[in-house]
Amino acid sequence: MRSERIVAIILLLCFLSLSACARYADGDRKGSPLWGTWNWKSSTGGITGKKKITPETAGYTKQIRFSPGGEYQEFRNGELVISARYSVVIKETIFRENEVLCFSDSTGRLSDKVIMGVTSTSLDLSDPFPDGYWHAYVRVEE
Hints:
Low-confidence stretches: 6-29
Mean pLDDT: 81
Order of helices and strands: HEEHEEEEEEE
Structural class: alpha+beta
Strand content: over 45%
Shape: globular
Helix content: 10-25%
CATH topology: Lipocalin
C-alpha cells in the first residue's frame, strides 16, 4: 500500500513538471516567447555583482537558439559550439520558485539558467547561485 502511494506521488510530480515545460518545449504550441534566436547583449554579476561582460569586451559574439521540439543550439562567432536538449521546469531557486532552463548535453559546459524574463524582444537569464551572472539577450528578427 505504501509503495502505491509513493508511485502515485511520483507520477503526479512528473505530470506537473511536464505541464510546466509545455509552455516552452511543446511542439504543438505556437508562439512560445522562448522559441527563436537570441543575440547575447551582456552578462553582469560575479562576486561583486558589478562585473560586466559584453561581446566587445569578451572578443566574441554569442547567439542561442531554442526550438519548439526542445532543441538548443549555441553559436560563437557564427560557429555552432553546443547542441543540446532543453526543458523548462519549475524549481525553487535563490530568487524564489522560478522557471528554470535545464540542459542535457554531453559537453558539460551548460548549467541550469533561471528565466528571469522573456518578452517578444528580450530574454533575461540568471545563474542560480549568489555570485552568478545575469545574461541579457535580444531577439533576432527572422
